[in-house]
TrEMBL record:
<dbReference type="Pfam" id="PF03453">
    <property type="entry name" value="MoeA_N"/>
</dbReference>
<dbReference type="InterPro" id="IPR005111">
    <property type="entry name" value="MoeA_C_domain_IV"/>
</dbReference>
<comment type="similarity">
    <text>Belongs to the MoeA family.</text>
</comment>
<dbReference type="Pfam" id="PF03454">
    <property type="entry name" value="MoeA_C"/>
</dbReference>
<keyword id="KW-0501">Molybdenum cofactor biosynthesis</keyword>
<comment type="function">
    <text>Catalyzes the insertion of molybdate into adenylated molybdopterin with the concomitant release of AMP.</text>
</comment>
<keyword id="KW-0460">Magnesium</keyword>
<dbReference type="InterPro" id="IPR036135">
    <property type="entry name" value="MoeA_linker/N_sf"/>
</dbReference>
<dbReference type="GO" id="GO:0061599">
    <property type="term" value="F:molybdopterin molybdotransferase activity"/>
</dbReference>
<keyword id="KW-0500">Molybdenum</keyword>
<dbReference type="InterPro" id="IPR036688">
    <property type="entry name" value="MoeA_C_domain_IV_sf"/>
</dbReference>
<dbReference type="Pfam" id="PF00994">
    <property type="entry name" value="MoCF_biosynth"/>
</dbReference>
<dbReference type="InterPro" id="IPR036425">
    <property type="entry name" value="MoaB/Mog-like_dom_sf"/>
</dbReference>
<dbReference type="GO" id="GO:0046872">
    <property type="term" value="F:metal ion binding"/>
</dbReference>
<protein>
    <recommendedName>
        <fullName>Molybdopterin molybdenumtransferase</fullName>
        <ecNumber>2.10.1.1</ecNumber>
    </recommendedName>
</protein>
<feature type="domain" description="MoaB/Mog">
    <location>
        <begin position="186"/>
        <end position="324"/>
    </location>
</feature>
<dbReference type="GO" id="GO:0005829">
    <property type="term" value="C:cytosol"/>
</dbReference>
Amino acid sequence: MRKPIPVDEAIERVMAWCREGEKEYISLEQCDGRILAEHIEATMPIPWFDRSPYDGYALSAEATTEASSDHPILLEVVATVGAGTVWDGLLTPKQAVKIMTGAAIPDGANAVIMVELTKEIEKEGKRFVQIRRKVDEGENISRVGEDMKQGEIVVEKGTMIHPGIVAVLATFGYDRVPVMKKPKVAIISTGSELLHVYEPLEKGKIRNSNAYMLQAQIRRAGGEPILFGKVADTFEHTLQVIQKALREADVVITTGGVSVGDFDYMPHVYEHLGAQLLFNKVAMRPGSVTSAAVFEKKMLFGLSGNPSACYVGFELFARPFIKAMLGQSKRYLTRAQAVLQKDFLKPNPFTRFVRASVSHQDGMLHVEPVGKDKSNIVSSLAQANALLVLPGGTRGFQAGSRVDVLLLHDEGDCVWS
Ligand code: AMP
Ligand code: MG
């Protein structure tokens, strides 16, 4: 007899085995969607020279103390600098340099007045700028380090690289970016009833949908899926493919064959390998037969063949394991509170993860089950954007109750590349 353990404990047993993976360097152009393998520390202040944030005139603020609309002052314009060019003279208090956004502030200048507040005039073949107000020292100067100070940690390791982080990386000159290697995750589908998607249907057979679903789930979690195809329900074939997968992948996921049927060989394979069984029964629905075992420090997830059980088993156990290998601190599905919109009155001896749909209404999260909820159902997986969590030992929940939900498509932490 198998002894069910609580979901939390099953997760803990799995996570106790996770270790952080390796890093690799990839080009800046390819790095978005990957996970940073090192902190990004400001190796220099940004900006690294004082710059003008506007088009205007760089000047010495002291020269403007007397300026007002009644008493405009005139400064001689001795040069014009655009972004990328530098005027290397030394400005005197009676002078100004016309300066464009992004250009370096000339020596001797300590403020910029915006071009809109000035008028340029010509007198005796010379250029002058007329100024009608006092300018304060430091006004309109982007100071060294204003954006990022040298030594500051700008982005932490384990963060998924998004477009804003790409900008920071480029600013510091990373043409190669340290990212975590994607853990290789093998997918093995067991079941003599399975057909490849391109094979013609035959009576009694079904298409292998789990493999492709898992492939997408693994990618979303940041792993690199490797399809090991389907294996018939024989001990030898199953063992042989699992051994191959263990040699080639960091994590091995099997689907099906993990229960107590006559042709369920996974328990025998674990035993034959001498793998350390972490659990083979979890107090949850769907997926109570979900199993996990460790062989030579590699995790074997034995997920149910039932599509919804397979999906839930992956999200609860394999996803955080992969994310931990990637060094991500946020590993688990986002948990939120929502108001149940319909009665769900089935008594729950085990914790239920009900495929559900959440939506924001009047500043609150509403949730309702998407319909068919048996573990063999595929359609509800396509409709669900959350799992409604109903703890075990309850008699069901009435509409209006506050319930926990796990968000499935939380874009902030998906990896897409
Ligand atoms: P099992 O876990 O092997 O007892 O399978 C449970 C149910 O899931 C059976 O109805 C199987 O036919 C079905 N099933 C198993 N593997 C897959 C798969 N890869 N894709 C879709 N359904 C599957
Ligand atoms: Mg089977």
